[in-house]
Amino acid sequence: MLPEPFDLLNENASTPLTLAKGEHAFRQGEETRGVFFVVSGAICLTRMTEAGAAVTLHNAKAGGMFAEASLYSDQYHCDAIAVAPSEVVRVSKRAIQTRQREDAVFSEELTRRLAAQVQDYRQLLTLHAVQTANERVYLAVASGRLRGSVTQFASEIGLTKETCYRALKSLTDQGALSKTGRGKYALRRSF
């Protein structure tokens, strides 16, 4: 079942997809066909820089949405790669746009959902402005951003994985974080 307001769309507006680890939901430059929801697994949105480095734009987990910008773009601007076996649902761009024009309540709920995501991205930009790696990592863990691998987390908050691992170790050694599992950390006290 799709979250609000997408649950108001006709059944034929959505297409379930099963992706193996490493498989693409879409590739950068492909024609946009819709937005996606993660039912299970995880999807990493990645863009290649001019220098050939992969930059993580977003990590979508179960219950998450991705490719929202495709509603207003002709081409996808990044790759969407399954980082684990994943079940996703693609919701038709055409169906969403038609419903927006016909239903003010649907349009308002969609706008509300997208506005919440803008707020989340602004929080991420704030994290990027934090100068020290230790403080940035601590604040990012405190805000719940360490949801996938440490490598994806590091990319999302604008650090190399090596710098991120050093900061996690330092924060653990200082007692600010405790390691609860492989790639898993919890807050212990204020930094």
From TrEMBL:
Gene Ontology CC annotation, any one: cytosol
Pfam family, one: cNMP_binding
SMART domains named in the record: cNMP
Sample GO molecular function, one term: DNA-binding transcription factor activity
Residues in Cyclic nucleotide-binding domain copies: 1-74
Cross-referenced InterPro entries: cNMP-bd_dom, cNMP-bd_dom_sf, Env_Response_Regulators, RmlC-like_jellyroll, WH-like_DNA-bd_sf, WH_DNA-bd_sf
Protein name: Transcriptional regulator FixK
Lineage, top ranks: Bacteria, Pseudomonadati, Pseudomonadota, Alphaproteobacteria, Rhodobacterales
